[in-house]
Amino acid sequence: MLRQRIIPQSIPANERMTTSAFTVNSLGSRAHPGDYVDSDEECEWDEDFSIGEDVEDEEHVWEELADCLRVHEKLEETFGEDEYAINRGILGYIIRKYPRAGNRLQPSEMQHLLVRELVESGRIYTLRDLTNSEWLDIVGDGSILFSLVKPEAREDIEYRACAIVNALCNSGETNVTMMDGHGRVVYQVMAEMRARGCSNTELNRYTFTLYDLDGDVHAWHSIFMPSGVTAVHDDILCSAENTLRDPDELPGVVYLNFCGIGECVEQTRDMVSTLVRVYRRHVLVSYSIRGLSRERITRLRDFHRQTCRMTTRPNQGMCAQFISEHVRGAARFVTYGFCHMLSPSFDNPDTLDDSDDPDYDPEEDEECECDCGGDSDCECGCHEGSCAMEDDE
Fold it and tell me: If we measure between CA atoms, which residue out of 240, 245, 168 comes closest to residue 208?
């Protein structure tokens, strides 16, 4: 059985993660430019494998593939029979060497093309045939996935992964549905399971459903992820224009990982409401609240304000719980968990009854939990009246 771990409910200001401004492409994919590690910076796993003898018949392969073949040869010379180290090394090299222009945290076309060539030529494992535990062994400590991510950004992913595993434990679900670029969240969820004592047999029971509209991201999921992952090339919220996806198509714990929700605020609110209130599911939502206007009411401001309110006051049976905050300058990237008030939260069930805590103060339950303390100048507007997510009266 998975052991429970309590996720932090608040993070001291001097320990909070930092991030930069976020950008969103036309498909809504997340980009965190400030979270990148510059390509010239050293990484723990990175070595200079790019210098070596020319491969035979190099004129018959494209330049990038020839480069990877040279690296693969060097890795074989270095690691010998250690196939896991060879696979890990070449995959990490591809992720670092051929990033996506404008967004290093999303897979590029070159990355999935190179991995496919190496798989089909038999030089590396067919990753899609691996079990979750085998794939986790190859990825190792995750540095090949996090080499372009700053430590504070990885720490925030660890908080979110911890909450997802808690939700799996508390709900009894065995699937996670979400979006996930290179697979950092999938990796971190699996690593968290193993850290709690999950056996390989149990780990292989869990499955993941990854939605993405971006063709290159979907292609990466289809070639890089293990057999426990199902890749879906589609919108996670809508099955057709203005048609909300059937919740049955989003099995298990659902994680909606946005940068800027943009035009999807209404669909996100409706999907969260349906999943939690009707299906009693656990849902996490991550989004940027940078630039929330104090002067005008927007859909995003309504959504965020009501989310903050639901951390202390359930609405139509739905509760919200703060998971993490990733801050850089004026930008704020937040994650909240939503569950039914009669369902276990995203914490250890043994801690749900705070009345047994000698330091428990019931008056604190009425205080705002968005770090504003109910300040009337707070951008979240949590001190104000009703909003779009409240009951229709």
Answer: 168
Contacts of 152-158 with CB under 8 Å at 24 or more apart are: 152/17, 152/18, 152/19, 152/326, 153/17, 153/19, 153/32, 153/35, 153/326, 154/184, 155/17, 156/17, 156/19, 156/324, 156/325, 156/326, 156/333, 156/335, 157/184, 157/185, 157/188, 158/188, 158/192
- The closest alpha carbon to 287, from 261, 265, 307, 321, belongs to 261
pLDDT tens sequence across 297-317: 788 888 999 999 999 999 999
Please, which residues have CB within 8 angstroms of residue 64's CB and are 6 or more apart in sequence?
Answer: 98, 110, 114
- Amino acid 235 reads D
CB 288 within 8 A of CB 35: no
Q: Please list, residue by residue across 314-341, b when 16 or more beta carbons sit within 10 angstroms of its beta carbon and e when fewer do.
A: ebeebbbbbbbbbbbeebbbbbbbbbbe
Phi-psi region of 214 (alpha: psi -120 to 50; beta: other; left: phi over 0): beta
CA–CA gap between residue 122 and residue 151 (Å, rounded) = 34
Taking the whole predicted model, whether its pTM rises above 0.70 is answered as: yes
Asked if pLDDT for residue 181 goes beyond 70, the answer is yes
Q: How far apart are the first and last CA of the chain?
A: 45
Supply φ then ψ for residue 149, to 5 degrees.
-115, 135
State the Rg of the chain over Cα: 22
The whole-angstrom separation of Cα 361 and Cα 349 is: 19
pLDDT in tens, 345-355: 888 544 334 34
| CA dist list (Å): 370 to 63, 80, 163, 175, 248 | 51, 53, 18, 30, 32
* Domain extent listing, the chain: 13-34+148-179+236-366, 42-127
Beta bridge mates, 21: none
